[in-house]
């Protein structure tokens, strides 16, 4: 068993054991934020017909030669076409079709004059302006052509993609399934929310933090609840769920105390232990194991530690499962607008609040209380500050590297 690996090595060891997961068809209305698993190919031209971008008159541009305010050209109105209807008459010289925005342009016409440059009387339209061929004219397929790849697979479906797919009339899209992640909290001290607090006990916040975050990341959390510090019971819960999920997360019991049972649980279920402890703080004593081609990530019980190591170790795996192109942690540099004295020489991840000033990204601590057991400093936290090994602290104005959450 490897011990005290650095973060990047830990990421590699875990990523090697994860592949993209199965695909499924979902309704477009349920596809937002999912990852496309097949190219979207246009089944129609968009727009599906030549159409008018204006309310006005469709006509032949050659008929407008010499037209002016003083000397209008007069054309006979042969038909009226609104959006949703279709012209029935072909346009010949000296004719015009009254047309509304979005309506199909009739055959024989090669331009549309806007209503404001005309007047209408007794079935005739007076044209006060010359027009060029295809002026104010939207062509069939000018946006998207039938058969064209409109959106490549492995793209996240955001509102723009939803709109474009809807414009093609496509009702269902192929996406990667949502990764299913089981979460189990261990610890005799844990109570579920709503239970009466009694001496020595605390509420299980980890399972709620992680499940909310998993939902935010468009995965499917499967909450296994609390398991006491009992090897048999914990082993059984993991064995019972492992075939149904893509990943298991446990929290608590990974340090060296009497009740730190997770290593024994892994031995009991014959999981391969990949490594124990990552050379970072918080969250050092994480244990990562592998059983039946699934990873079991056992995070520290300390609330802030489990939440931070989830971001550093688990999130990239979830991204990889749905083939996100860049499944690595997304970083940028920012100016530190706070002060922080670092006690240990370890690489440290601090909870930060990132904002943007005229001079670029600026980050400050969410709270001066940054210890592993303090959860309130996750409030307002939108990034992690990566403080390198050996650093003795940070001063106002220092350039720091941050990881987006
Ligand atoms: N002698 C040593 N003691 C400790 C070491 C060490 O190296 N030598 N490491 C410390 C570090 S660092 C951490 S981090 C913790 C990790 O402990 P565990 O992962 O075994 O977690 P627990 O002991 O079960 O819990 C730690 C802490 O968090 C509370 N907790 C647990 N689960 C939850 C939950 N679901 N929701 C909210 N809070 C939870 C628990 O009550 C403890 O207070 O070990 C240090 N000790
Ligand atoms: O590694 Mo622990 O989470 O720092 O206290």
UniProtKB/TrEMBL annotation:
Its cofactor is Mg(2+). Residues 4-31 form a coiled coil. InterPro entries: MoaB/Mog-like_dom_sf (IPR036425), MoaB/Mog_dom (IPR001453), MoeA-like (IPR038987), MoeA_C_domain_IV (IPR005111), MoeA_C_domain_IV_sf (IPR036688), MoeA_linker/N (IPR005110), MoeA_linker/N_sf (IPR036135). Keywords: Coiled coil, Magnesium, Metal-binding, Molybdenum, Molybdenum cofactor biosynthesis, Transferase. Pathway: Cofactor biosynthesis; molybdopterin biosynthesis. Its EC number is 2.10.1.1. Residues 182-320 form the MoaB/Mog domain. The keyword Nucleotidyltransferase does not apply. It catalyses: adenylyl-molybdopterin + molybdate = Mo-molybdopterin + AMP + H(+). Catalyzes the insertion of molybdate into adenylated molybdopterin with the concomitant release of AMP. Belongs to the MoeA family. This is Molybdopterin molybdenumtransferase.
């Amino acid at each position: 068993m490897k011990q005290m690996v650095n973060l990047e090595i830990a990421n590699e060891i875990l990523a090697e054991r994860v592949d993209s997961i199965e695909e499924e068809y979902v309704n477009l209305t349920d596809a937002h934020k999912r990852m496309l698993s097949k190219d979207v190919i246009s089944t129609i031209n968009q727009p599906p017909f030549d159409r008018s971008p204006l309310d006005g008159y469709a006509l032949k541009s050659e008929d407008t030669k010499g037209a002016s305010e003083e000397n209008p050209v007069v054309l006979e109105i042969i038909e009226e076409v609104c959006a949703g209807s279709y012209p029935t008459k072909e346009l010949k010289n000296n004719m015009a079709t009254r047309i509304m925005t979005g309506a199909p342009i009739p055959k024989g016409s090669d331009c549309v004059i806007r209503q404001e440059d005309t007047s209408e009387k007794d079935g005739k339209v007076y044209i006060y302006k010359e027009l060029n061929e295809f002026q104010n004219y939207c062509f069939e397929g000018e946006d998207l052509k039938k058969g064209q790849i409109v959106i490549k697979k492995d793209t996240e479906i955001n509102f723009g993609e939803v709109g474009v797919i809807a414009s093609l009339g496509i009702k269902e899209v192929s996406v990667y399934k949502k990764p299913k992640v089981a979460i189990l909290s261990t610890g005799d001290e844990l109570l579920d929310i709503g239970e009466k607090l009694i001496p020595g006990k605390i509420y299980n916040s980890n399972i709620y933090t992680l499940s909310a975050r998993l939902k935010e990341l468009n995965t499917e959390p499967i909450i296994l609840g609390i398991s006491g510090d009992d090897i048999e019971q914990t082993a059984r819960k993991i064995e019972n769920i492992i075939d149904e999920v893509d990943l298991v997360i446990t929290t608590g019991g990974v340090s060296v105390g009497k009740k730190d049972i997770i290593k024994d649980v892994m031995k009991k279920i014959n999981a391969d232990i990949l490594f124990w402890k990552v050379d970072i703080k918080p969250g050092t004593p994480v244990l990562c194991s592998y059983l039946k081609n699934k990873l079991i990530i056992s995070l520290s019980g300390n609330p802030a530690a489990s939440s931070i190591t989830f971001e550093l170790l688990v999130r990239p795996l979830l991204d990889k499962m749905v083939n996100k192109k860049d499944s690595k942690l997304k970083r940028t540099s920012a100016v530190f607008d706070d002060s922080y004295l670092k006690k240990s020489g370890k690489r440290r991840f601090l909870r930060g609040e990132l904002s943007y000033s005229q001079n670029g990204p600026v980050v400050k601590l969410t709270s001066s209380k940054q210890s592993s057991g303090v959860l309130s400093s996750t409030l307002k936290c939108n990034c992690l500050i990566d403080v390198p090994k050996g650093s003795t602290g940070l001063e106002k104005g220092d350039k720091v590297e941050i990881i987006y959450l």
